[in-house]
Amino acid sequence: MRFSTVLRRACFSFLVVLLPSLASAQDYPTPREGDWIAPSFTFHTGETLNNVRLHYVTVGDPTKPAILVLHGTNQTGASMLTPHFAGKLFGPGQPLDATKYFIILPDGLGIGKSTKPSDVLRASFPQYDYDDMVSAQYRMVTEGLGIHHLRLALGYSMGGMQVWLWGEKYPDMMDALVPMASQPTEMSARNWMMRRMFVESIEQDPAWNHGNYTTEPPSLRLAGAMFAIATSGGTLAYQALAPTHAKADKIVDDMLAAPQKSDANDVLYQWASSADYNAAPGLSRIQAPLLAINSADDERNPPETGTMQMSLKQLKNARLLLIPASAETRGHATLADATFYAQQLGVFMKETATH
Predict the structure, then answer these.
(1) What is the pTM of this model?
(2) What domains are defined for the chain?
(3) Which has the closest alpha carbon to 224: 211, 243, 238, 205?
(4) What is the per-residue pLDDT across 316-333, written as a single tens digit (0 to 9) for each?
(5) C-alpha distances in angstroms, 276 versus 38, 128, 303?
(6) What confidence tens digit (pLDDT) does each residue in 18-42 have?
(7) Per residue, what are the HEC states of 226-272?
(8) In degrees, to the nearest 5, what angle opens at C-alpha 205 toward C-alphas 210 and 126?
């Protein structure tokens, strides 16, 4: 047995605990969660933080080929374990069959149960970026789990942007790449403008108090609802869901009445972490076959700009699957439902299989 396999089993058995609440009645193996502690982590700013916790959820046997699944902003690895995502991808015979693959779903640096501003330092926490998050994921996968090759790296939204970076930073580590609801180009136009306004609306709230608040600033709830409506949900879908003034008001009322579970500092850091994202200059370093999956009604990555098509021309083996807009799609949120692409993803997995 190879040393890497022994190490993976040892790390896995020491760190994980069962997560029965996540397993529910799904067809795939019971998810497990674990932590790896980085003794020291250096950020792109040069700042160093000791004992950085990187949390993860795994599904399947750690001796099987590994698949990395990366979540979106203000989500967690466990948030991907839904009937519409994991329930359509991780089951027997499905594209990412968890009886054949070892699926790793990390909580990004600064998010979920990984070390984050609300745990320590608050607004004095080092400002991380996507490159830092990918470096932390890489260390967790290689140093923590002893895995040095990935069958696939797949990500949604923020996770999709990080998949582009994975392909550039570690080009020989994976067999295939699937960035979803993302593009490799610089954070700009409406996508960045709305993120900037989200951050500004909270930081300009006196209740934020430079991050030293005792209760969550009210702007967090208002800004979050505004951002969600403006940048996700789909035009045709909203028209179908809210064709009248009263129904539109009901959606807004429900959003504003929902429990506030996020910490303002954590949220600010997460959205600000995208500021310097730009995978475009490094596209030529990507070696693995790549399937980009976007939706035609994605408010943050509108296909009519042509930026994705120009980017894919720089790659040796890449193509775009563009989901047509409809009343059933949800704009930027469309790809949280694997119904729209499970079949094509299955084909891509077969095409990129190594023997």
Answers:
(1) 0.93
(2) 3-186+279-351 (3.40.50.1820), 189-272 (1.10.1740)
(3) 205
(4) 999 999 999 999 999 999
(5) 24, 10, 21
(6) 444 444 457 999 999 999 999 999 9
(7) HHHHHHCCCHHHHHHHCCCHHHHHHHHHHHHHCCCCCCHHHHHHHHH
(8) 30
